[in-house]
Amino acid sequence: MDFFYQINLAAFVLVNASMVYRQYRQDKRAELSEKIQDFDAENDTADEGGSTSRSSTVVSASSAKQFTNIFFPVYVLVWGADWLQGPFIYVLYKDEKKLPEEIVARLFTTGFLAGAVSALFVGSLADRFGRKNACMAYCAITSLSCLSVLSNNISVLFAGRAMGGLGTTLMYTVFEAWMVTEYNQRGLERTSLKLSSIFGRMITLSSVVAVLAGLVGQVFVSWTKTNCAPFVASICCLAPASLIIGRKWSENFGDSGSAPKEKKDSLKLLLGVDKQVLTLGLTSCCFEGSMYLFIFFWSPALKSSHLLAHQHSALPFGIIFASFMGAMMLGSMLFTKILTDKRWMTCRELLQTVVVLASGSLLFTIFFRSEWITFWLFCLFELCVGMYFPAMGYQKGKVVGDGERAHIYGLLRIPFNIFVVVALSLTKEGDAYRETIFMTCSGLLLVVGAVVGIFLHD
């Protein structure tokens, strides 16, 4: 079966490479067209005796380039550190450290519980003391979490998972909050660099890094004969990321001393009275909760299908994970193609379609136990993940203001963390419970699809 997974990974690489090349050529044509338009505008302004337009154009283009040059390298390093850990954390606890399934579930639960609790305050602290500082804190906390796996002491492992949960909350809130606020403060909406394209590029880069991380992690494990190696490699990514943040990033904060009306509007958002924010919270809870449960259950699900086919060889988890990330990368590029290039549907319609497709991909794994069908359904789910995150990021960017962006983003993560904690706290050995989880997630995603269609505005 190793050959089957290698063929699928090669197919994803070829399709994604083709789409990246086409996108590159399209971007070059758009850049050339913009330069021609700017040149014409400058000539028109010069004829009228002015030079302000030319100066503004140059400054805007330079600011956009500087912004991408300082943000995307950090983004790649941070997500590279995270993806290096992903494929190996379950097998590290279960197979290498020989921990029972219940203990593994409790370790995962500890991480999500820490994420839920920290979501109550990390966003507001980041808004108050600075998102740049919060990003650097993430690098330090996650490095300590990675070091914890070198120990066999159960208390150290639980402490490491708690730090990992805190780090995950920071990763999903403060980096995006810093990016959107910095984008707005620089006035980059006046340039060709659109916010929706940034979100699409973020997920594409994340997917590329994830594929490479899966393969590199597999090589490290093969060389060192331990699943701890990718966690040590993660620290080597976080150190330069922290250095770039400290030297290159400017600090931005949330609003302080807001007017009473602004406070009232913020409270309205926090209490979920705003239907759009409530819809985004429900969508985040069900989709991202399902995604994290999928992260926990995909390995045992494939192992079960593998055994049903009377195969007793070890599964190539690094290659499988790289294939999943290839599917996610394809989804992110489809998002850009559908929403930005072709405009086949609105972002709301795309988000609704994605959650319904994800629902079907989880449901059908219950009825089709073949290993290769299960794998392809999981790839479909990851493709949906690739479209979901830029769509959700774009929607949140429109609905939530800069003043308390990190705080709101953090609060939106509380429901899904609680959802995952409850599901994992009830974890049992065997296929029956896993199928119940997938069926429940599928039903919830169908409900979310209906709610998005009714309450979320374009």
What is this entry, summarized?
The chain has 17 helices and no strands. It is mainly α.
Question: How would you describe this structure in keywords?
Answer:
458 residues, mainly alpha, 17 helices, 83% helix
Describe the model.
The protein has 458 residues and is mainly alpha-helical. Helix content is 83%, strand content 0%.
Q: Structural class given helices, strands, pairing?
A: mainly alpha
Please give the alpha-carbon distance between the first and last residues: 45 Å
Proportion of helical residues: over 70%
If you compute it from the alpha carbons, what radius of gyration comes out, rounded to the nearest whole angstrom?
22 Å
Mean pLDDT: 83
> Major β-sheet, in short?
none
List segments where confidence is low: pLDDT < 50 over at least 5 consecutive residues: 52-59, 256-264
Count of DSSP E strands? 0
Overall geometry comes to globular
Q: Output the number of helix runs.
A: 17
Percent of sequence in beta strands: under 5%
Order of helices and strands: HHHHHHHHHHHHHHHHH
Q: Strands, helices and their partners?
A:
Elements: H1 2-47, H2 52-85, H3 89-96, H4 101-118, H5 122-129, H6 131-148, H7 154-185, H8 195-224, H9 229-248, H10 260-270, H11 275-308, H12 317-341, H13 347-367, H14 371-399, H15 405-412, H16 414-425, H17 431-455
Helix pairs in contact: 1-2, 1-12, 2-7, 2-8, 2-9, 4-7, 4-16, 5-6, 5-15, 6-7, 6-9, 7-15, 8-12, 8-14, 11-14, 11-16, 11-17, 12-14, 13-14, 13-17
